[in-house]
Amino acid sequence: MKTKRKAAACLAAMVVWASPVQGADALLTQPEVGAKSAVVMEALTGRVVFWQQGDTPMPMASTTKIMTTLLALEQQNLDDPFVVDGGAIRVEGSSMGLREGDTVTLRALCYGMMLASGNDAANAAAVCSAGSMEAFVEQMNERAAQLGMKDTHFVTPSGLDAEGHQSTAYDMALLMRAALQVPQFCEIAAAKTARLEYGNPPYARSLTNHNKLLWNCEGVMAGKTGFTKGAGRCLVSAAEREGISLICVTLGCPDDWNVHAQLYDRCFGLLQPVELTAGQVCLPVVGGESPVEVQPQEELILPLTAEEADMLEIKVLLPRFVYAPVKRGDLLGRLECRVGDTVFYTCPLVAQQDAARNFEPTAEKPCLWERLLAWVKK
């Protein structure tokens, strides 16, 4: 086990803000793996760790259902029962076992997509969410554009082969990175089995996750399988070790289980967790209880190589002062993590306690603090 290194920050009183820059050149390109396309991405920053034809468009089969599930989980009626659209569920391929007239919930359909890879679940969720599969596919492509998935075009909610239905390993890593920010998605994707009720009338049944990495690979916490004749075997997964999270994508990979395990071992072996801390940093508060302590919004582990860890420079970017009142959690600055000329990551710095005004404004005659504030604001 590696020991987490703590990096203390030096205070730099600056009015400017850090500009976030995500990603870097891949640390690894060789040796290649037995896939048509493969990418390993570090989840916190979006940095590419491994690259093999990562920008080559190709079909991605049922890994498509990551997007379908992500959009379905954004609906307000996840647990409201409804009767599935009979036309939507008449589809070939893998299924969660829906039949015409069945009553189900969107949440159950999400489990059916992520665990059983149900094409019936994907189509039913699409119609329930957007009114039709065509309208839902439009939403899929809109979200892909928002996420920067420049080489992706969705045609079906399920991922069945269709002309023009394609993505890249890099784009699918971007999609998984976004999905990992949604707690409900993570809960579903991490489930090895699920006990659900649906049918006509609904009755209890169990689904088992097709993602064997949940059982066989250290730290794997989510994933989605895929296979069609046109796409071959496709797999998107995510794993965490020592506070570092990696996303692995392979398209057209006959031995995907072993390839993902090998890539995780290689890529985690390159990185070490560096715990970021701002040290003891306080910011003056004009007109209030001063100073107020600032710290990163959350505990952060920055994944770096040993060489990068030695070169790491951390700066606290703050204004010279703030005006009262200040509330705990208020955004006051940023922490900038830089290696050489590359900014690896920036994170918000927030107030750790309230700082109330130490005077009350009066309508009669301004007090000393009121006059001082008026003079500073000129």
Question: What is the gist of this entry?
Answer:
With 378 residues, this protein is α+β, with helices and mostly antiparallel strands.
Could you explain the architecture of this structure?
The protein has 378 residues and is an alpha+beta fold. The protein folds into 2 domains: 5-21 and 275-376, Peptidoglycan synthesis regulatory factor (PBP3), Domain 2; 37-270, Beta-lactamase (3-Layer(aba) Sandwich), CATH 3.40.710. Helices cover 25% and strands 30% of the residues. The chain contains 10 helices and 20 strands. It has helices spanning 65-72, 106-114, 119-130, 133-146, 169-179, 183-189, 213-216, 256-270, 306-311, 368-376, and strands at 5-8, 10-13, 37-42, 48-52, 82-83, 103-104, 193-199, 202-208, 220-228, 232-241, 244-251, 272-277, 281-283, 285-286, 292-296, 300-304, 312-318, 322-323, 331-339, 342-351. The strands form 6 sheets. A 6-stranded mixed beta sheet has the order 2-17-19-20-15-13. A hairpin with a 2-residue loop joins strand 7 and strand 8. The longest helix has 15 residues, at 256-270. The chain starts with a strand and ends with a helix.
Keywords, separated by commas or semicolons:
single chain; five-stranded antiparallel β-sheet; disordered N terminus; Peptidoglycan synthesis regulatory factor (PBP3), Domain 2; 378 residues; 2 domains; 10 helices; six-stranded mixed β-sheet; 25% helix; alpha+beta; globular; Beta-lactamase
